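Complex record, two chains
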Amino acid sequence: EIVLTQSPGTLSLSPGERATLSCRASQTVTSNYLAWYQQRPGQAPRLLIYGASSRATDIPDRFSGSGSGTDFILNISRLEPEDFAVYYCQQYGNSPKTFGQGTKVEIK
Amino acid sequence: QVQLVESGGGVVQPGRSLRLSCSASGFSFSAFAMHWVRQAPGKGLEWVAVISYDGSDTVYADSVKGRFTVSREDSKNKVYLEMSRLRVEDTAVYYCARDSVSYCGGGSCYSHDFWGQGALVTVSS
């Protein structure tokens, strides 16, 4: 199975700053089928990005995804208070689907 | 609006069985594959299973294969996860989630665009 490694484990930033989250796959993700999810405490995950770079419905444009092959990035251009959460990448191009271990974005 | 509501969670002894249900509303249920994803306490997400839009295909994670069964009942807009021979390591919040692409009929399908709030399953003696 494909192992996804997210870095850093924790990102400490202030509101208004830019966040850059990394997701590296152990092998090529088929068709760049890579998604990003946000999970706030006590809530279900929310789909942000699919197909590596397409924003899901109603997702603000401060969220952007990029990358291909084995290296993917989620950028949050200017952090809002509600963006402090845990972010997971997921590859769904190969079975079984797998998630990364998560990156926590916390308030500095 | 799309809503997914899980039920059936609880405390169960190792080796016993439990069935989770997920009730869907706000979309054409029979057009979408449905997934189960779980999250152990304080841990990350683990994909568990998927059933195709027409129920003809199911795929499971190796960790649950042979013990868990996913099924659907389109007349009731419900998807189920039958869990047997439960282990302590199956303790988790179980989420049902909709596939993000309609009419996925085989394989493990795509990402998950809507999620329920989850049902907690605790396996303990």
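Note: Chain B touches chain A through 22 residues (CB under 8 Å).
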